[in-house]
Task: structure prediction
Amino acid sequence: MDITALNSLSGLSSYTTNIKTVDSDNGNKTFEQLFQSAVNMINDTNNLSNAAEQAEISYALGLTDSTHDLMVAQQKANLSLQYTVTVRNKVLEAYKEIMNIQF
Result:
């Protein structure tokens, strides 16, 4: 059982401590890094969902009889999806709040 794929989900926490004052050159780089992290998170979520689906198919076809591995794959996919949706909701909430700021 390999759980190293979930370690990539913790990569977003480094952005909260590493963001310094944003100037015009650094702002694009910071956004690019944040965007790339979001894309990587979505790809990891997709990979975990595909792995869970493969485990379900293998179990249904009788290729494997380990319900433990099936449940672990499903749980990893579920947690990854919940985390991705939560991050998306927080980003949208922050965007709406910024759009409501009046000068």
Residues 28 and 74 are 37 Å apart (CA to CA). The chain has one domain: 23-99. The mean pLDDT is 82.
